[in-house]
Amino acid sequence: MKLLLPLVVLGCATGILAGVYTDRFLQQYEKIHNSANGYFSQDGIPYHSVETLMCEAPDHGHETTSEAYSYFIWLEAMHGAITGDFQTFNDAWDIMEKYMIPTHADQPTNSFYNPSSPATYAAEMDTPNDYPSPIDSSVPVGQDPIFQELTTAYGTEDIYGMHWLQDVDNVYGFGDAPGVCEGGPGTPGPSYINTFQRGPEESVWRTIPQPTCDSFKYGGTNGFLDLFTGDSNYAKQWKYTNAPDADARAIQGAYWASQWAAAAGQSSQISATLEKAAKLGDYLRYALFDKYFKQVGECFDPHSCPGGSGKNSAHYLLSWYYAWGGATDTSAGWAWRIGDGSAHFGYQNPLTAWALANEPSLKPKGATAVQDWTQSLERQLELYAYVQTAEGAFAGGVTNTWKGRYDQPPSNLTSNTFYGMVYDWEPVYHDPPSNRWYGMQGWSTDRLAQYYYVTGDVKAQATLDKWVAWLLPNLKFDGDDYQLPANLEWQGVPNAYSGGEAQENSNLHVTITDFTNDVGTAAGTARTLAYYAAKTGNTEAKDAAKKLLDGMWNLYQTDKGVSSPEVREDYNRFTEPVYVPSGWTGTYPNGDTIQSGITFIDIRSFLKEDPDWPKVEAYINGGSAPEFTYHRFWAQSDVALAQGAYGLLFDE
């Protein structure tokens, strides 16, 4: 087995670790960084995709996500491993910190936050048509047990975490630039925005984009607030939402940078950045707690389920989000914070949990942070075992708040809970189901495989053995052509969980419904197999990883990267109705009207000016579904990282 450490070639003028797959990394890296290819804004911010007409979670290609920033950081860490120069890793972190972590001016009233009363309850509803959801102060909430130790450790009440979504070119025109609240279309620099706000059936096609700082300049009488929550009085406010898997991925990249830099004798070059990564991990603990800090376990009624105290509100899993907000008025302020009671297996990152608990350069300053991440690591490993199907794939996750409002779950789920939380095959969102996409398997299992590679943990190996045994027969190769799972369906429920290393879920099953040649999911899968093979010596896994990497490289080269064409049948939803309550009216900065009866494209009229719009319009008018060759930043980075990881592991 070859150690995954940079061996900088002495006497080489470039200092590059040479090899077939590390050279591929550098070729792909250069394509990503070629300014003519359009991956970055003029400020060095990675776009979600090169192409602008793009709708999936972001609804425009030149938005960006915390996911893209995290891949940027990891990409630059590996660049340091291969070249011996880690300055671009520092630079990537600095760009992320400057643009995606709200400054004090962006979150000015955290000093008013009361950890004994973190937020007022509002139920999540079933469909967007059920909103706004009334705020209900009669529902008990718990106490925030980490606020004071974070304030003590860092000397500020502000949160150090990424907001998840950014309008890099300010296309919507809100102008929520760093330190600016609703500056308008002319505000330079990226603009914070949000979309999802209205329950599990609110796909991106049903969203109403909104500013993160709402001063009532746009929207309706109360800005956008009364579309989402029902209240007797609305105040101008700021609010941010964190995607924990992205912050965890950024820390994961920092962990590898710490190891690679140490091997290259460059630890001092990145020490300050590693301190920031540790700080990010300290605040990431908000993702380990129930949404309203209620007790975890058997929480099946919002009024009778008590608020938590101490750490009994912690489920210790990486949940779907945490969020925080407050008033814009610094003279009469208030602030709130929430976690999330639902956790998807696909968001877990045992390597990050292990690094925050064990890597000296990444240990957070919070008094109980190491203890919390140690506990989180164990709980994450148990979650993989709890939701692993009889075949080996991972089925969804668990929730402490059924239907997002602490409802009574079906009886077939309450007899087999996971630390009192119930199984959910599609945590958080249902359109499409959150665990239908196979990519969640590769993403999360890759992190598990990296953790296993670093630690040799036999519990992780047992879980990986079963997953790899399911996957390998379902990879199809014909020369360079490859196919891997695209979408999955689930049947049954897990068996009762009693703790321990693994369990046999004889009543929980997976079915593969279709296959794909997608390069992003193929890259994540190949990297998973490579780490697994490097630790176990499994030649079949190594060979499959190589075939995936060679196939995508040989078949799907483009001028801008490595990408396979895709047909977007879902683009008929550009004309899907977006629910707005009867009588509610408002406007966007460009003049688009928000009112009952609008469609997705009605409130995004700028998309009609996109050069790719005609082929979408032709499809809407009865033509064939349009085909695109997209260059998503995460997928193009994944291609580079998978090629590079294989090279660092196996290149001679």
Short summary:
This protein is of the alpha+beta class.
Give an account of the 3D structure:
- There is one protein chain.
- With 652 residues, the chain is an alpha+beta fold.
- The protein contains 15 helices and 21 strands.
- It has a four-stranded antiparallel sheet.
- Helix 2 packs parallel to helix 5, helix 5 crosses helix 7 (350-358) and helix 10 packs parallel to helix 12 (519-536).
- The longest helix is centred in the middle third of the chain and has 20 residues, at 244-263.
- Residues 1-18 form the signal peptide.
Please tally the β strands and state the result.
21
Structural class: alpha+beta
| Helix percentage range | 25-40%
Discrete helix count: 15
Please state the overall shape, judged from the principal axes of the Cα atoms: globular
Radius of gyration: 24 Å
Distance between the termini: 11 Å
Largest sheet: 4 strands, antiparallel
Strand order, sheet with most strands:
1-4-5-6
Uncertain runs are 1-15
Q: How large is the share of residues in beta strands?
A: 5-15%
Mean pLDDT: 96
Topology of this structure?
Blueprint: H1 20-33, E1 63-65, H2 66-83, H3 87-100, E2 121-122, E3 133-136, H4 147-154, E4 165-167, E5 191-194, E6 210-211, E7 213-214, E8 229-230, E9 237-242, H5 244-263, H6 267-283, E10 322-327, E11 335-338, E12 342-344, H7 350-358, H8 369-386, E13 397-399, H9 411-414, E14 422-424, H10 439-455, H11 458-471, E15 476-478, E16 481-492, E17 508-516, H12 519-536, H13 539-555, E18 566-567, E19 585-587, E20 593-595, H14 613-620, E21 627-628, H15 633-650
Parallel strand pairs: 3-8
Antiparallel strand pairs: 1-4, 2-3, 4-5, 5-6, 7-9, 9-10, 10-11, 12-13, 13-14, 15-16, 16-17, 18-21, 19-20
Helix pairs in contact: 1-15, 2-3, 2-5, 2-15, 5-6, 5-7, 7-8, 7-10, 10-11, 10-12, 12-13, 12-15
